[in-house]
Write a structure and sequence with these properties.
Elements: H1 3-14, H2 21-37, H3 70-79, E1 85-89, E2 92-93, E3 107-111, H4 112-118, H5 120-126, H6 137-144, E4 149-154, E5 164-170, E6 177-179, E7 182-187, E8 192-201, E9 207-217, E10 222-230, E11 236-245, E12 250-257, E13 262-271, E14 277-286, E15 291-300, E16 306-315, E17 320-329, E18 337-346, E19 352-361, E20 367-375, H7 379-386, H8 392-409, H9 415-427, H10 431-435
Parallel strand pairs: 1-5, 4-7, 5-8, 6-9, 7-9, 8-10, 9-11, 10-12, 11-13, 12-14, 13-15, 14-16, 15-17, 16-18, 17-19, 18-20
Antiparallel strand pairs: 1-2, 3-4
Helix pairs in contact: 1-2, 2-6, 7-8
Length: 436
């Protein structure tokens, strides 16, 4: 479908007239920006390696209602983490399978549809402030269809020790389904929490998830953010994470991308106060004909901040992956300490990766470094394992797991790491042979 199809979908959605004036204005701006831009093409530098034409294969539409059958209940039982959670199916909130008990004092979690009714003043100040509709076409489209998602707020000095989970299940219905979740996190001064976004697939229906997350951290606030993306083999997924950090705040993003025919994850992080720390980690594992894109943009706009960035890719068969990262150090951002590393492992002759780490430095008193590497399994290590009676498939799994383990170990021990380990095990070489 062309850009006009998505514009028609947005116009039909907005014609319902069920939104307050301020929200309708955001939706209309999103539609206007989308119409002005249209869908990106390979001629757009930032989308040069993303096969956007895939999004035109089906007439994706948002759904109004979903039924949470036994398949959904079983998936939630398998994927849910201990603690509070919100569950969504094809972009619609499912209260019966969500858990809102166990939240500590000062921590509020609610579906965005409810927050739009109850927290208008807060959302008018925060919604769309970090992910402007003008950012690109799919941010515009998300704004044009803005209706559901989640709001997580942390009062000053609130502490949430148990991870908060947002579980998005893509099932597909009578036709191709478009889901446009918007997640808003507002963390007050000195607060601390862990947020886990999980995206998984149900069935073989055609689905397109276009997600946007906005994170605003107050002074001395801390947030660990995990994104576990493991949707089905035919799913399309575009996700954008936008963060802004106050003074002495700490932000960690851990993105694990395993599923989808096409999956693109973007992280846009900005320092708004001195003394901030930012960690951007990512692991993408693809096989078959999967296409997994990763883009990061880290803005050191103020002095005395540090950032560490490590992305690894593992690609087999004819899968393709990309990492395009940029660190920008502005003129006034003296004493910046930043590093960016991309490492990639190709397991077959047909696998491809495009890695492009970038530094733009306009300050002179900084410590910055970046680098990239692309290679294959070490022949000597593989020979050593096989000479000791280990079958080739198992040896390849062991070496690949060792390559990925650095990012897995960066996840604190507990249910989140266990979930990452399980997802990774499903994607390692030899899984299809063992299961098939």
């Amino acid at each position: 479908m062309s850009a006009s199809h998505y514009a028609d979908v947005a116009r039909t959605f907005q014609a319902r007239g069920d939104a307050p004036a301020w929200l309708q204005a955001i939706r209309e701006e999103g539609l206007s920006q989308f119409q002005a831009r249209g869908l990106p093409t390979s001629k757009d530098e930032e989308w040069k390696y993303t096969p956007v034409s895939t999004l035109s294969a089906h007439p994706f539409q948002p759904v109004r209602d979903v039924s949470a059958g036994e398949d959904v209940a079983q998936a939630v039982a398998r994927l849910a983490l201990p603690g509070p959670r919100l569950v969504f199916v094809d972009g619609r909130f499912v209260p019966a399978l969500s858990v809102l008990t166990g939240l500590p004092r000062g921590v509020v979690l609610k579906p965005l549809s409810q927050a739009l009714r109850e927290d208008g003043a807060l959302l008018q100040e925060t919604l769309g402030q970090l992910s402007r509709p003008s950012a690109h076409a799919f941010t515009s489209l998300n704004a044009a269809l803005l209706e559901e998602g989640a709001l997580l707020t942390l009062a000053p000095r609130a502490l949430s020790e148990v991870p908060v989970q947002l579980l998005f299940l893509a099932r597909g219905g009578d036709g191709p389904v478009l889901a446009s979740p918007r997640i808003v996190v507002v963390a007050g001064e000195g607060s601390e929490a862990t947020l886990v976004e999980t995206y998984a697939g149900l069935g073989s229906g055609a689905t397109f998830t276009n997600a946007v997350t906005e994170v605003s951290l107050g002074d001395n606030a801390s947030l660990r953010h995990f994104k576990l993306q493991a949707e089905g083999d035919t799913a399309l997924h575009l996700g954008g994470l936008y963060s802004r950090q106050g003074r002495d705040s700490r932000f960690q993003s851990h993105a694990f991308s395993f599923g989808g025919a096409l999956a693109r994850n973007e992280v846009h992080a900005a320092f708004a106060g001195e003394g901030g720390e930012c960690v951007l980690n990512g692991l993408f594992v693809g096989r078959g004909t999967q296409h997994l894109d990763n883009r990061t943009d880290l803005d050191h706009a103020v002095p005395h901040c540090s950032s560490r960035e490590l992305y690894k890719g593992v690609l087999d068969d004819r899968a393709r992956g990309t990492f395009h990262g940029k660190i920008r150090v502005r003129e006034d951002a003296q004493k910046t300490d930043a590093s960016q590393t991309s490492r990639n492992l190709l397991l077959s002759e047909g696998a491809q990766v495009d890695a492009r780490p970038q530094l733009e430095i306009f300050a002179d008193d900084v410590k910055c470094a970046h680098g990239t590497a692309v290679g294959r399994l070490d022949d000597n290590a593989l020979f050593y394992l096989r000479s000791r009676g280990i079958p080739k498939v198992d040896a390849e799994r062991m070496l690949t797991q060792a390559f990925a383990s650095e990012l897995v170990r960066a996840v604190p021990e507990g249910p989140v790491r266990a979930r990452v380990e399980a997802l990774l095990a499903e994607k390692l070489p030899g899984t299809a042979e063992v299961m098939g």
